Amino acid sequence: MTFYLLVAVLAALVSFGASWAVFKLSHRYKLYPGIRERDVHTTPTPRLGGIAIVTGIVVALAIASQISWFRLVYADPFPILAIVAAALVMLVIGVIDDVYDLDWMTKLAGQLLVAGFLAWSSLQIVSLPIGPGRIATLSPTMSLIITVLAVVLVMNAVNFIDGLDGLVAGVTIIAGSVFFIYSYLLSIDTAQTAFNLASLVMAVLLGATAGFLPFNWHPAKLFMGDGGALVIGLLMAVSTISVTGQIDPNDIDSGQLFAAFLPLILPFAVLVIPLLDFGLAVLRRLRAGKSPFSADRKHLHHRLLDMGHSHFHAVLIFYSWSAVVAFGALLFLFLPWWWALAFVVVGLVACTVVTLSPLSRRKRVEAAVQSSPDAQPQFARFDPLDAAAPGSLDDVPEVELEAVAAALDDSETRPHDSRTPTHHQQETS
User: Residue ranges per domain, the chain?
Assistant: First the structure.
């Protein structure tokens, strides 16, 4: 564990230093795009943080290769070289997209090629559970198809939730920590050694992400961009797939089935919110006759802002959902199933209550303004997406909010003139 902590700290230090350098260079040479309609930030911000994250990962992996305790991991260096090459290719594709805005077909083609390359380099899902005490060893063709689909799915799911400051980085740290614990314990149990590829990749990913997070915390000075989000999704998928290589399907009995295939379940359980967001976005865009990869402003994090949550609260809600599902899945290995299930149920109920909590005082004022038939034109800036727009309620003095509420109270005591247009009618006229 000490050596994993060492490489994680090294990755964090390198990532932090590289983030500072990218931040300075981006502002010096104006390497940042303008504000897009779907963005929640209001000032131009560099999107090249993925370069810093990948720099931390590559440097940490290079240093780990010189530590004798990791010699078993580097005995066959080809898988690690394939992972590094795949990460660099995805970084390049992501950076080009951040700067020039690539079309979705080009990005998807690049993802498929990278996923296929990883599968060709022996990083494949080789077996799947099909029932109690039964598993199926996949044919080479099925193994290739399922591996490619899994890698592309996880990459896009992570990329889709990259819409709030610190969101992807924090979720990665939560999910990655749980997955690291599992892969570490599984390796000791099955291979009688603590050193394995999955744990090493996850350790350096955790370190690099933690080093980047201070620059990405709200209000963010630096975004990871598609380059960072796609690489994080790639490495999470790769770690999952490489864990399955530690398991001999012929040695699994019915009592160990869940534990043995937890690495296949855990990442998808941890990414249940990103995957849900991805699925809803694809369905929403296809129904509208658009490309499934076209951008819009209807992701789950946008909806949390619309409900009245602040930027900070929305991020914490995502963290909470991820932590409950991730740690809950891990508890099934250490506690009786009913205790683990109870933890998950209680946690999910608590997360639901917080997510759907009543509007705050400021949000109730906003809702009253917009629902009142006598709302005046000067109140138009109380937009429903106020948390993501300039002139938000967060910037409105409490005195003014009280004045608005008083004005609405007065309007309720006056007869309503049906000829007076409402705020929404004025917007659409």
Answer: 2-296+314-355, 361-428
Asked if residues 246 and 197 have their Cβ atoms less than 8 Å apart, the reply is no
**CB of 12 closer than 8 Å to CB of 212:** no
CB 65 within 8 A of CB 74: yes
- pTM (predicted TM-score): 0.77
Report d(CA 217, CA 119) in Å as an integer: 35
- Residue in 360, 329, 334 with CA at minimum distance from that of residue 344: 329
Q: Are strands 127-131 and 134-137 parallel, antiparallel or unpaired?
A: antiparallel
412: number of Cβ within 10 Å:
11
Q: How far apart are CA 76 and CA 332, in angstroms?
A: 33
Q: Tokens 């855990």 label which residue?
A: 266
Pairwise CA distance, residues 53 & 208, whole Å: 5
The predicted-structure confidence for 7-66, as pLDDT tens digits, reads as follows: 999 999 999 999 999 999 988 887 766 555 545 545 678 889 999 999 999 999 999 999
Q: How many residues does the chain have?
A: 429
Q: With contact defined as beta carbons under 8 Å apart, do 61 and 320 qualify?
A: no
* Bridge partner list, 133: none
Dist CA 159 CA 156 (whole Å): 5
Say which DSSP state 417 is in: -
CA dihedral sign, ordered 302, 304, 307, 313: negative
